[in-house]
Amino acid sequence: MHFNWSILFVFICTGAFSQNKSIDELRSAQEVRKQYISPTSNIDWSKQSKSLFVDPFIGTGGHGHTFPGATAPFGMIQLSPDTRYEGWDGCSGYHYSDSIIYGFSHTHLNGTGVPDYCDLLIVPQSGKPKLEPAYLKKGGYGSKFSHQKENASPGYYEVELLSENIVARLSVTERAGIHEYNYKNEDGRKFILIDLDHRDELLDYRLNIVSKTKVNGARISKSWANEQHFYFSLETSVPYQSAKMLTSRGSHKLLLTFPTSTKQIKVKVGISSVDIKGAENNLVNEIPGWNLDEVRARTVKKWNEELSSITIGSTDLETNIKFYTSLYHAFTQPNLFSDVDGRYRGHDKQIHLIENGIPQYTVFSLWDTYRAAHPLYTLIQPERNDHFIHSFLRIFEQSKDLPVWELAGNETDCMIGYHSVSVIADAYLKNATRINAEKALEAMIFTSKINELGKSEFRKKGFISSQNEPESVSKTLEYAYDDFCIAQMAAKLGKNDIAEKYYRSSLSFLNVYDPSSKFMRARRGGQWFSPFDPSEVNFNYTEANSWQYSLYAPQAISVLAETMGGKSSLSMWLDQLFQTNSALKGRDQVDITGLIGQYAHGNEPSHHMAYLYNYSDQPARTQFYVDSILKTMYTTLPDGLSGNEDCGQMSAWYVLSALGLYQVTPSHPFYDFGRPIIDHAVINLPDNKKFEIKVINNTLSNKYIQSVKLNNKTYNTLQINHSDIVNGGALEFTMGPKPPKSEHFSSSVSAINKVDYGFVPVPFFTNEQRLFDDSLRVDISALNIHSYAKRSIEYRFTKDTTKILKFDKPF
Fold it and tell me: Following CA atoms 28, 30, 31, 32 in sequence, which dihedral angle do they give, to the nearest 10 degrees?
């Protein structure tokens, strides 16, 4: 088939659609890609508009929990269909396996493990009105649809509602959305149902009929966010004939009836977290007219600008689709939270005005995104990441706590750690943020000392006991890492006393390391939690087991390797991880997916582990396993993600790893080399600088790095400094089918490579028996690390706390 490609790409990627075109002619990028692009097409993919390669349906199946609808880069609004009203696989409101669309709502979460949002459901109908959803009432609203008549691309969504004989088209700006409903049946009345009851518990509401074409209102709801404020201003292109408030029997809906002769109704909606006035301003400023295709074209242009921050060259079409869809998912959030007039709702429930033109953002899934998403933003979106950090600090000013998992002006207290300190320190260590560093450090230290979630016990004892706090092992490990980030920030500011204190605390991961098993284990005070099975999923770990947490000491991998017995012991431990039986024991944990042995790529605790071979005596195995993960855990199908997308983290891992880079330790500004799968890439940096990555002899079988050059000079280490990238230049990998015969590269070195800072490990009882009749043999030991091996152990009995005894043998 002969086709004019230049016309196609202008048509698709600029959004230059004519309103005279019929709906059937207005095909999305996805449909055109399916019909006209084949893997054998002789096309230079690197020169095409990047939005062409984005498939929003990737991740909508399986357990990816993504949504296919229209959104702008980091935008406030996500206008998307809702096919599920509850359930874990309905967190985003949509699942690819479903066959009924209930309507279109204006906010959606991207790949989370807890449901929320889906605010302001709009339900177009024809014929006889249906006032309750089909999942509550037989014969209620909810239309069948087919994926064959459904299309999505950046900033656009289209579907035919088969039961209603309506073609729906959706597009958005940052804070407003526009719907277009084309009624194919000429007879019968036409309706728009506005449903405020959809999904979340409704705490309060408002519905105001302003005119024959305008409705506004409010929806205050409770779900994952305890008190979400959502305000809207809605206009229709056609005056309604009648408006019926449906507020009896706990219902909170409005039915708008339109003339029988109506063939098309457009609806545009502005949203705000502040008030109705804010929603009206957002709508007037961002969608003043009714041309959906103009709205779409502007948003597609913004997507192309954002996606062009990295230009890749790959002859493989699927690699292009996976790469740019991953970048798209990474740029779907955090979400804009301040209105066009600069107002936003703070964590103190008060209305604030932004300063210095820096917008406020929300949706910070930090337990997930500190690992790869925020390092990616710091590299290619430094100004926006700076705005995220300003948002953190505003939240601290209002709540006296840095965010953990922040949503719509609420702290959900979901997950663990205080990883906002990682994001702040990483950006500051890379000179990529303009903040008041002194105030930021004060907030970081204050948050680390709040008496909550075992922090006080961690500060006092150096670990958290399992009987006092759930997920004690994971919290001990993650608090230790976060303290390292605080130490890095303090050291950068010249506050050496603070830095030394937090560096010492960051070594506390050693207090839950059991030298006899070489696993991280829970402790009941001085005793190890038993019985112990590393494959058991229990309440001592966060969404994981001991296999998946025992190498979580990103700040001190070299220390951990030495503790295990050296580099060869680390590589042997990793071999066991990837090759052992994948069966899980204990409690059911749906998040543990994407298993290779006990490595679980579908959840974040495992994400750095393949790169740890770089710190061992077998660095080429990093390349082997990263190659395997890139090729098997990511596909272009709806179930193409091996686990929850988790607000861009799963995709950010792919983007960085495809380039051959991964930052094992955020706030230590170095990237480890992995296995680059692209042939060529250009990272477009601020100040018109560029960093080029070339991959020589790149084939499916050539997965091993033979040599590396940086700016044409031989490079013999497996790490590169962030400054070497942002200064611009060229990195060249030469690949081959086998690891180099002789060791060309020195092992990676972690930020902390020896036990220092006055750290002393906490002793432990070697016996795990807890109950006895008349006597119990007591043996006490401590981790044998460097000079501390010869330290004496002292103890005392609680009945006589004044008498301190020296332990010299079991008793």
Answer: 80
- 754 and 786 in contact (C-beta within 8 Å)? yes
Contact 630, 652 (CB under 8 A): no
DSSP letter at 268 equals E
Q: Quick one: how far is CA 285 from the chain centroid? A: 30
Cβ(725)–Cβ(687) below 8 Å: no
CB 186 within 8 A of CB 263: yes
Q: Which residues pair with 732 in a beta bridge?
A: 694, 709
For residues 326 and 655, the answer to whether their CB atoms sit within 8 Å is yes
Eight-state DSSP code of residue 747: P
Each residue's pLDDT tens digit, 677-728: 999 999 999 999 999 999 999 999 999 999 999 999 999 999 999 999 999 9
Residues 150/159, Cβ–Cβ less than 8 Å: yes
Q: Which amino acid is at 644?
A: N
| Residue 580 DSSP class | S
Distance CA 498, CA 55 (A): 47
What pLDDT does 313 receive? Answer: 86
Q: How far apart are CA 119 and CA 107, in angstroms?
A: 6
Cβ(322)–Cβ(654) below 8 Å: yes
Residue-by-residue DSSP string for 332-357:
S-SEE-S-TTSEEE-TTS-EEE-STT
Instruction: Tell me the longest C-alpha to C-alpha distance in the chain.
Output: 95
How confident is the model at residue 187, as a pLDDT?
83
Q: Which residues of the chain have pLDDT under 50?
A: 1-29, 32-40, 788
Three-state DSSP class for residue 500: helix
- Pairwise CA distance, residues 686 & 414, whole Å: 34
d(CA 113, CA 60): 13
How far is the C-alpha of 401 from the C-alpha of 392, rounded, in Å? 9
Instruction: Specify the amino acid at residue 758.
Output: G
The token pair at 558 is 């070299």
CA–CA separation, 671 vs 375, rounded Å? Answer: 10
d(CA 532, CA 519): 10
Burial class (CB in 10 A: 0-12, 13-18, 19+), 141: buried
- DSSP assigned state of 105: E
71: which strand partners? 78
Q: Which residues contact 739 (CB under 8 A, 6 or more apart)?
A: 620, 623, 704
Which tokens belong to 360? 């406020």
Give dist(CA 788, CA 780) in Å, integer: 15
- Please state, in angstroms and rounded to a whole number, the distance separating the CA atoms of residues 454 and 433: 31
d(CA 48, CA 13): 9
- Residues 53 and 168: their CA atoms lie apart, in Å, by 23
pLDDT tens-digit series, residues 11-24:
333 333 333 333 23
User: What is the rounded distance in angstroms from the CA atom of residue 509 to the CA atom of residue 397?
Assistant: 31
How far is the C-alpha of 60 from the C-alpha of 318, rounded, in Å? 17
Q: How far is CA 225 from CA 232, 323, 379, 405, 412, in A?
A: 18, 32, 30, 10, 6
Paired sense of beta strands 513-514 and 670-673, if any = unpaired
Report the first-to-last Cα separation within the chain, whole angstroms.
Answer: 87
Q: Quick one: which of 28, 417, 408, 352 has its CA closest to 227?
A: 408
